[in-house]
Amino acid sequence: MSVFTKILKRIISEKKTEPTAQKHQNHPSWSTSWEALNTPKQYDHLAAKGYSDNVIAYRAIQLVARGVASIPWLLYTKNTELEQHPLLQLLKHPNIQQADGSFREQIISHLLICGNAYILKTLNPKGEPVALTALRPDRVKPKMTKHGHIAAYEYKVSDKKYTFPVDMLTGACQVLHIKFFNPLNEHYGLGPLQAASSAIDQHNAVAEHNLSMLQNGGRPSGAFVVKPSEYGPSLSDRQRDALTRDMRKAYEGATNAGRILFLEGDFDWKEMGLSLKDLDFIEGKNLSAREIAQAFGVPPMLVGIPGDATFSNYKEARYHLWEDTILPLMDLIIGSLNHWLSPHYKDALRISYDADRIPALALRREASWAKIAEVNFLTVNEKRHAVGYGDLPTGETLPG
Question: 0.90 cut: is pTM over it?
């Protein structure tokens, strides 16, 4: 006796004892809401659905954050580079638990996820900064005055609260708040992950659909149609639920893929699903993935989206990632740190970096060197100075 025969016999026996029968209808055995559900724009939801569950957003954030973290710090006093200084040591070793790379990666990841990053500086008894710590953005809350100015930052972890006041005259505070522009809120930034949340929801929905299709053996959905018979006009709600439950147990899932479905009596199977070609899931998935990458300023081919992925194009894509996304973020971080940390020292310090040491920017260096090499109004030594080299004894003459 087949599985379906057992199910049918049990339903028939229940039908005989059913007190009333419903009117003849072809009821679907599920309910569907067509309202679009978007990911809530709180930090924890964004981090879970956007960063943890979406491979495109995860890869884009990793590319940008690790790129910023790989740039070496430089420190200057006026025009002189310093190789040793307490501030340079602090930047390279921000706290006892993190190296510089992981610290910067955490800061940039916070910015890209929610548009806000908070850094706490720990001061010694002399008032000198000795440690820098990244604070999780959802645990930091600005405390406002009645005039709308930030009076303090409150950091809450577990059941403990820490308050760091803001000097209302100078703006000095132990907490540095780095944020992206937000047109609707002057106190909280707007992150790329928030802007891309709808595209991320679409991309995740396609992935979940494909997983569900795989778990059901790639079989499209359909409907059982029960024809009127001697046992009654149709099935009751209780019988439909029992049939749905037993059929799922017998035929759904990867382990049941390919099993033959037997229909007996007055049951019929009606195909209702659309093909992958009709729904065009692949193209829709690539389109939403492209939108996610664009929100982070990452060329699509760098996150695995199909396209013209030749070596030349890949080299150009890496160059534009650094030129248009990574370096502007590094400039934002450096500008904030200069304003926040330099006043602790008396040497008119300036934090910076050397873009010529970045391999991905070789295209820019090659173009610059080619232009310098072609001019005929500079001496050899002047050209060497322009590209960072010293003098030659015979380099004071103009090209002949």
Answer: no
